[in-house]
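Students often ask why inverse folding is considered easier than folding. One informal answer: many sequences map to the same fold, so there is more than one right answer. In these notes we will look at a single instance of the problem. The structure comes first.
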């Protein structure tokens, strides 16, 4: 293993790194919601969410499904999404991260995480601020719309390929 613990002798990416990649993506996913915050105070609260300053997120559980071993050098893309639509009474968020290997052009790992909402000022589980719930709900709804569109596009491509196959048989 190298001095940083990232790779084993055969340049295999250490399994711990997969969870670090997803943790980074989770923080970026949350902070991205601050970009179009209505007020500076809301922006600050979004920025604080991945920190232990006030209302925050604590990883309660993560499950990593390894699909393909990655080796160095490789570049990755991490896609991150909400797995269920948040509610005003939600005390946790169920989210999913996909780690894609650019070298192999396929899914390398799928991580499912359950993240608790925690108020560090009261040391208790909590719920998100209403404006956060609404923003996450908008994000979830856009994810669903995008999935419906992509599914339709995929069916159209499959139908076109099947049509071409029929012409050449």
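Output (designed amino acids):
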């Amino acid at each position: 293993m190298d001095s940083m613990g990232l790779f084993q002798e055969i340049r295999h990416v250490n399994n711990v790194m997969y969870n670090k990649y997803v943790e980074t993506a989770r923080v970026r996913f949350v902070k991205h919601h601050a970009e179009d915050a209505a007020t500076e105070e809301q922006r600050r609260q979004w920025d604080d969410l991945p920190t232990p300053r006030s209302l925050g997120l604590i990883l309660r559980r993560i499950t990593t499904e390894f699909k393909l071993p990655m080796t160095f050098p490789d570049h990755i893309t991490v896609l991150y999404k909400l797995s269920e639509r948040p509610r005003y009474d939600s005390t946790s968020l169920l989210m999913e991260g996909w780690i894609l290997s650019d070298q192999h052009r396929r899914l390398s790992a799928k991580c499912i995480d359950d993240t608790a909402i925690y108020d560090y000022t009261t040391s208790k589980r909590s719920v998100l601020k209403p404006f956060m719930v609404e923003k996450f709900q908008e994000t979830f709804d856009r994810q669903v719309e995008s999935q419906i569109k992509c599914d339709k596009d995929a069916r159209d491509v499959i139908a076109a390929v099947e049509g071409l196959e029929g012409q050449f048989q």
